[in-house]
């Protein structure tokens, strides 16, 4: 919320995101009720066959945006924890002279890499990881 503020995010949620989610979830529910075999993947099976590639592109973009949010959040939270004295001081590199929030902390980058590698090794397959998310 730091980049936009509470009001624009609340407006976007109620005007755009909530109606889209409700429409999608009700559509998936109706599809599964009408055809129980579609329970394996209702999101992609809800769309017509010509829309499969655009949906895969949309899903890929959403994944990239979400991963970028995790990375940015990790750097921001680490900076705040350092400023509050919760963790020891680390080398912080400011990557922009204009934007104060654009920072790079090498230790955080390494910690994220180790965490991702441990997740990949621990779950062993994308199916096991999907099961952890309830997909």
Highlighted features:
135 residues; mainly alpha; 5 helices
Summary, kept brief:
Helices cover 68% and strands 3% of the residues. With 135 residues, the chain is mainly α.
What gap, in angstroms, lies between the N and C termini?
A: 28 Å
How much helix, percentage-wise, in residues? Answer: 55-70%
Category from helices, strands and their pairing: mainly alpha
- Give the overall shape, derived from the CA principal axes: extended
Indicate the low-confidence ranges by residue numbers: none
Q: How many individual helices?
A: 5
Topology as H/E string?
HHHEEHH
Q: How much of the residues is beta strand, in percent? A: under 5%
Main sheet strand line-up = 1-2
- How confident overall, as mean pLDDT? 90
Total E-strand runs: 2
Radius of gyration: 20 Å
What is the number of independent domains?
2
GO molecular function: potassium ion transmembrane transporter activity
Domain K+ potassium transporter integral membrane: 1-135
Transmembrane segments: 50-82, 103-123
Protein name: Putative potassium transport system protein kup
Explained architecture:
It holds the Pfam family K_trans. Belongs to the HAK/KUP transporter (TC 2.A.72) family. Keywords: Membrane, Transmembrane, Transmembrane helix. The chain has two domains: 46 residues; 85 residues, no CATH class. It starts with 5 loop residues before the first helix and ends with a helix. 68% of the residues lie in helices and 3% in strands. Strands 1-2 form a two-stranded antiparallel ribbon. Strand 1 and strand 2 form a beta hairpin. The chain has five helices and two strands, in the order αααββαα. The protein is mainly α and 135 residues long.
């Amino acid at each position: 919320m730091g980049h936009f503020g509470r009001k624009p995010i609340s407006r976007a949620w109620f005007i755009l995101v909530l109606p889209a989610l409700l429409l999608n979830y009700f559509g998936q529910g109706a599809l599964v009720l009408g055809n129980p075999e579609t329970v394996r993947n209702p999101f992609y099976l809800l769309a017509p066959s010509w829309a499969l590639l655009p949906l895969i592109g949309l899903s890929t973009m959403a994944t990239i945006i979400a991963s970028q949010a995790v990375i940015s959040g990790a750097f921001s939270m680490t900076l705040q924890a350092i400023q509050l004295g919760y963790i020891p001081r680390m080398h912080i590199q400011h990557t922009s002279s204009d934007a104060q929030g654009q920072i790079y902390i090498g230790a955080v980058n390494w910690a994220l890499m180790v965490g991702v590698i441990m997740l990949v090794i621990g779950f062993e397959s994308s199916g096991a990881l999907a099961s952890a998310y309830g997909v």
